[in-house]
Amino acid sequence: MGQSLDILIDRLASGKILKINEIFDSEILDVDEKELQFPGPVKVAGEAYLSEDQLIIRLSASTIAQMPCAICNKMATMPIQVTNLYHAEPTQEIKGAIFSYHDLLREAILLEIPHTFECSKGRCPDRPLITPYLRGKTKEGSDKESTHFPFADLS
Q1: pTM for this one?
Q2: Confidence grade of residue 108 (pLDDT, cut at 50, 70, 90)
Q3: How far is the C-alpha of 124 from the C-alpha of 46, rounded, in Å?
Q4: Contact 46, 60 (CB under 8 A)
Q5: Mean pLDDT of the chain
Q6: CA–CA distance, 124 with 130 (Å, rounded to integer)
Q7: Which of 21, 64, 68, 128 would be a feasible disulfide site paired with 40, CB 3.0-4.6 Å?
Q8: Of the given ranges (3-7, 30-34, 113-117, 140-144), which has the lowest mean pLDDT?
Q9: C-alpha closest to that of 73 among 134, 128, 116
Q10: CA–CA distance, 136 with 99 (Å, rounded to integer)
Q11: 27 — phi, psi (to 5°)?
């Protein structure tokens, strides 16, 4: 596995296009959380080129994330996909003619992680256990005794 997330600007002169097709260890995401883990590699594909005084980067990335299910709290796996990420960076702001897309890639992947996640493709087997505690839609004349609200009498 290559570990270079650097783009050498001088190699893109004369209209050359840098093809990016890398597989990185998930440690590049620098996530040290108990409730968010990345057990698989990060696959990155795309290209970089110069357009006048801008470095243009187009990337797609994929990986696998693990986080607790919002219903049963067991660790569940979900695919993370970043598609058609475009970034323009002025070449005069790139120090030493080397641009690292590490932060760009990390931010794009972390932004794709949902706030909550439910295992079994969104159908947690434990959902029926909590359904009585969820507020449902009530209509006039409906039987309110079918739902139990254990803390309703507290003041």
Answers
A1: 0.78
A2: very high
A3: 35
A4: yes
A5: 88
A6: 11
A7: 64
A8: 140-144
A9: 116
A10: 52
A11: -65, -20
Maximal C-alpha separation, the chain: 75
Quick one: which of 58, 75, 82, 64 has its CA closest to 26? 64
C-alpha angle 20-25-27 in degrees, rounded to nearest 5: 120
Residue 154, pLDDT score: 86
In SS3 terms, the chain reads as CCCCCEEEHHHHHHHCEEEEEEEECHHHHCCCECCEECCCCEEEEEEEEEECCEEEEEEEEEEEEEEECCCCCCEEEEEEEEEEEEEEEEHHHCHHHEEECHHHHHHHHHHCCCCCCCHHHHCCCCHHHHHHHCCCCCCCCCCHHHCCCCCCCCC
Gap between the Cα atoms of 47 and 2, Å rounded: 16
